[in-house]
From TrEMBL:
Organism field: Aspergillus coremiiformis
Keywords carried by this UniProt record: NADP, Oxidoreductase
InterPro entries: NAD(P)-bd_dom_sf (IPR036291), Sc_DH/Rdtase_CS (IPR020904), SDR_fam (IPR002347), Sec_Metab_Biosynth_SDR (IPR052178)
GO BP terms in the entry: secondary metabolite biosynthetic process
Keyword Ribonucleoprotein in record: no
Protein name in UniProt: Oxidoreductase
The organism's place on the tree of life at top rank: Eukaryota
Length: 281
C-alpha cells in the first residue's frame, strides 16, 4: 500500500466532503437541480453557481439556498441566468462564472426539456428543441467548461461532470396520447454521450458520470405522474413503494462529486427505487 493510499484511508471521515469545492448547476432553479445545489452547499462547497433560463427563478433559488443553516461560513449560491440552448449564452455563462472563480470542480449538466404528444402529430419543432437542449447543449456545456474543470484537476483529485439522464433513456418511455419520443431518445443519447466523454476526458482528470432518475415529484414530472395514474399508482408499482425525494438526488450527486466516487467514470446510476427493472405499468 502506498503512502497516498494510507493517507486516504486515514482520512475516511472526509470521504463525502466537498469542502471548498466550486460547483455549477444548470437547470438549478427548481426540481432536481435545486435539490442537487442544496446538497452541494451543505456538503461543503464554497460556491454553487445556479443557472437557468429565467432570472427571477434563479434569484429565488439563490435566496433560498443562501438561507440554508447548514452551509459553511462564507459559502454562497450565485445566480447566473442563461439559456443553455444557445451557444452564445453558454459562452456568456462561462465568462460570468470566470468573473468570480478561476476554476470549477463540479459541473452538473441538468437543464432539460420534454414534450408529450401522440406519434401521428408529434411536431418536428418540439422534437428538435428537446434533442438540442437535452443532448447537444450538454456536449457544448462540457466543452466550454473543460478549461475551468482542468485548472485544479489531478489524477488523485479529479474534477467531475454529472449529467442528468433518465430511466426513460434506459428503457422505453411514455407512449400513447402523451408519448415522449424525443425525451426518451434524448436521454438515451445523453447517457451514451456521457460514456464517450468519460473516455475522452478521463485522461484530463475529469470524471464523467450520469444519473438516471425515475419519477420525482416536480413541475416537469407532475403532469406525467398524473397521466400514469397518480402518485399512489406509481408508488405501488415501485419495488421500494415510494417515489424520489429531494435527499435522494442530493445524496447521489454529493457522492458523485466526492472522493468516495473518485474511481467511477462512465457510470450510469438509476435512481428510481428499481421501477425500471419491472418494466411499464
Amino acid at each position: 500500500m502506498s503512502a497516498t493510499d494510507q493517507v486516504h484511508l486515514n482520512d475516511f471521515p472526509s470521504i463525502f466532503s466537498l469542502d471548498g469545492k466550486v460547483a455549477v448547476v444548470t437547470g438549478g432553479s427548481r426540481g432536481l437541480g435545486l435539490h442537487a445545489a442544496s446538497g452541494f452547499l451543505q456538503a461543503g462547497c464554497s460556491k454553487v453557481y445556479i443557472t437557468s433560463r429565467k432570472p427571477q427563478a434563479c434569484a429565488e433559488a439563490v435566496a433560498a439556498l443562501n438561507a440554508l443553516p447548514n452551509k459553511k461560513p462564507g459559502a454562497q449560491a450565485i445566480s447566473v441566468p442563461a439559456d443553455n440552448s444557445k451557444m452564445a449564452e453558454l459562452d456568456r455563462l462561462v465568462e460570468e462564472v470566470r468573473k468570480t472563480t478561476d476554476h470549477v470542480d463540479i459541473l452538473f449538466a441538468n437543464a432539460g426539456a420534454t414534450w408529450g404528444e401522440r406519434f401521428e402529430t408529434h411536431p418536428e419543432m418540439m422534437f428538435s428543441k428537446v434533442m438540442n437542449l437535452n443532448v447537444k447543449s450538454v456536449f457544448y456545456l462540457v466543452q466550454k467548461f473543460a478549461p475551468l474543470l482542468t485548472v485544479r484537476a489531478t489524477r488523485d483529485e479529479p474534477s467531475r461532470v454529472i449529467v442528468t439522464g433518465s430511466v426513460a433513456g434506459l428503457g422505453v418511455g411514455t407512449l400513447g396520447e402523451h408519448a415522449t419520443f424525443s425525451y426518451s431518445a434524448s436521454k438515451a443519447a445523453v447517457i451514451h454521450l456521457t460514456k464517450s466523454l468519460a473516455v475522452e476526458l478521463g485522461p484530463r482528470h475529469i470524471l464523467c458520470n450520469a444519473i438516471a432518475p425515475g419519477f420525482f415529484p416536480s413541475k416537469m414530472a407532475d403532469g406525467l405522474i398524473s397521466l400514469q395514474g397518480g402518485l399512489k399508482v406509481l408508488e405501488d408499482h415501485t419495488p421500494n413503494k415510494r417515489l424520489g425525494r429531494p435527499e435522494d438526488i442530493a445524496g447521489l450527486v454529493v457522492f458523485l462529486g466526492s472522493r468516495a466516487a473518485s474511481h467511477l467514470n462512465g457510470a450510469v446510476i438509476a435512481a428510481d427505487g428499481g421501477s425500471h427493472l419491472k418494466g411499464k405499468l
